[in-house]
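Contributing new records

If you add data, match the layout below exactly. Sequence lines come first and carry their own label; structure lines follow with theirs. Keep one chain per record. Anything else will be rejected by the validation script.
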Amino acid sequence: MSTITNTTKLFDLVKKSRLGPQIVPFGQMFWEPEMNGRDDYGTEDESNEITRALMRGWGRDQTAQAMLLDDLPTDMPNREKYTLEYCMTKRNEQWHVLKEGAVKDKSIQDLLTIWERFYVQDGKLIEPIYFGNSCFRRSARYVMSQVLAFTDANNTDAAGHPLPLVYDLPVNVIHFGNDTERVTMQIQENDKKREGARDLSDIERLKYGRKLFRNAVREVEFRKTFEQNEAVRVFQICALDNKYRELHIFDRIVDAAHPDKLTYKRFNKDTTRKWVKETKTADEIAVLLHEQEHGERKRQPKSMARDKVEAVKNSPNDVAVDMAKAFLDDSDAVFSLMAAIADACNMARAAYKKSPATYNGLLEHMKKFEI
């Protein structure tokens, strides 16, 4: 066996030994916001709530997904950018901003002190080893949570001693064969209902879906990845957008300021699937989308079966017979007559509903006029 083969196998064994669940120092993690498929980090109140919840530590039941920094998927967007040098530059810039801020504002001194405990060792910045794929909101608030823990006089144990800061977190280090695997696992992570996790918005779900669709992920895989009720809708919107690219359907949904905005919730999965399968021109689809967005066409009232209307013509009720003829012959004259005698018809109907005796009394009274 060649030396090259032996070296390759040894490298693979070393890499595998670095994968799987483990406890990792926070300073060895690096999160790049661009790699979060979500746009919305929540309200300020939600962020403050997360910060307070993290004061006692990251939580052993809140495992973060991560990749080795030297083992990112080869087809991951901007993969070549995310080098150790890039991460260290970002980290150094943040350190510089905090040190300058602490000189001008003493309230930032506590933040700088805690930040350095997490990211600095022996006067040097700690080099990240792991690249985060989940828990972006939690990671963004964690250092601040430990600042609160450090400064809060009530953050003590039963004996009144200050609780220690928590410098590590549970991480599941994963090797992704391709970026589709990475995105899929990130989606599934975001769909979990747990502390610090939020439901995907419609727009976030569609953005994730487009990434998968462009990577030729099939509809059946969408059903495994997304919440069941939305999986088909997301896939069919992506398919319609791909088929009629000149209509810019995706852009019109995700861009809130688009002058010809389309609303995600107005897309019915079955109707959209039908449009994808049919042979229609882009102009025809454009008309359908406009009608869908601005209100459906007025539906004609369900017409009574003609044979049933014909049967009414044999009724002993002259009013019913006239009405049947009016519907069959589209006679405005009959409708005008019905409007003119509406009071009399309504009075007779009300009398009968009150009691047969009342109706019979009204009928006897009317017979006196020899009608």
